[in-house]
Amino acid sequence: MVPERLLRQLENRAQKGILRQLQTPTTGLVDFCSNDYLGLASSQELTQLVEAELAGTHLHGATGSRLLSGNSVYAQELEAALALFHRAEAALLFNSGYAANVGFFSSVPQRGDTILYDEASHASMKDGIRLSFAQSFAFRHNDLEDLHAKLKRARGDVYVAVESLYSMDGDQAPLADLAALCQEQGLYLVVDEAHSNGIYGPNGEGLVVELGLQEQVFARIMTFGKALGSHGAAVIGPKALQEFLLNFSRAFIYTTALPFASLATIKTAYQLLPSLDQDRETLKKLAKQYQNQLTESGVFGLNSGKGTKNGPIQSWHLADPHALKQLAGTVQEAGFDVRPIFSPTVPPGTERLRIVLHAFNTQEQLQQLCSLLLQHSPSVIL
Ligand code: PMP
Fold it and tell me: Are strands 339-341 and 352-356 parallel, antiparallel or unpaired?
């Protein structure tokens, strides 16, 4: 027996054309979908490095939480290396970016404090914020004026939470302005770098380091499941923050630590990052190509969404879920893996294909994709 209301909710989604379903992967499609921006998830070089790192070691579970049997010198050395790489005092590993955000926001901002967060922030940040006893207000996406207005209601310690590169829109937060504001007013800036880690900065340290703002940012959330081609995450910041999280963050304390195989993959992926300059350049060139092609076709701003997007996340907006699903199907049949993103993952009316660029995509492939999008989208929006 299944409660009637669950069935009704599923039916409701199906009727609107937004029922989430697992899609069996089709092999051989050109990847314009995954977050494997640099191709590390399938890199032969990384495989060899990981195999060498794992040789002769056990590959099973960590056997407990980091505070009990799950700790290792290897994990602590990895954290020290992460802190050094990202130019911070300390790092603390979490099992995923989701866990890192929930673990951070549910424990650090406390009763009597305030969290001001960009409305486009990732679900894991919002879930952590819901678990926090601090009061919280969303401000309009990338809107500093609205942030100023919301600041009037702030009390206690004030945390400002943003993503450096937004996961669905692909635009950047105005980090320099935010950092200046936070410094001036004594606010704590928290930046989720899930989608900029590996992509920006001289060695892929992220956007905060590229902009030289590391001293002005209180905490950064780095995830390893995207450009690093692995999984897991770390919160990067002051030593006292690391100590606080390992004492009070339940998403860190009450969970089995990452297994050695994961730590080894993260460590070796980081070893490769500095050598991937060319790939980072390719990504930027492809982003420019996509934006230029849309501009030349006269659909820039209509189908591309707002904001400057010089990174790997681009989009093709089409608000009708049924038309969007059909477009995705047509493009997939032509050999390109693109996926539609529906509400509530994005706000209703902003449904889109999330077009993800990779260092291994070619200009010709992107050109073909753009032609397909232009050719098969309903003419009303062209
Ligand atoms: N933060 C952002 C901005 C994300 O896009 C994601 C993943 N979609 C996460 C956190 C969660 O990271 P993970 O996949 O490692 O749980």
Answer: antiparallel
User: Which strand (E) or helix (H) includes residue 63?
Assistant: none
Ligand 1 atom having least distance to the Cα of 166: 3
Q: Lowest mean pLDDT: which of 21-30, 73-82, 152-161?
A: 21-30
Domain boundaries, the chain: 27-41+276-381, 57-274
Which mutation among 33, 34, 124, 266 tests ligand 1's pocket best, with the greatest number of atoms within 8 A of CB? 124
Paired sense of beta strands 219-223 and 233-237, if any: antiparallel
User: Which atom of ligand 1 lies nearest, measured to the CA of 225?
Assistant: 15
Q: Tell me 165's DSSP state.
A: B
What's the complex ipTM? Answer: 0.99
| Topology annotation, domain 57-274 | Aspartate Aminotransferase; domain 2 (3.40.640)
Pocket probe for ligand 1: among 35, 95, 122, the residue whose CB has the most ligand atoms within 8 Å is 122
Q: What is the pTM of this model?
A: 0.95
Query: What CATH superfamily classification does 27-41+276-381 receive?
Result: Aspartate Aminotransferase, domain 1 (3.90.1150.10)
* pLDDT tens, residue by residue, 241-289: 999 999 999 999 999 999 999 999 999 999 999 999 999 999 999 999 9
Distance 382 CA to ligand 1 centre (A): 33
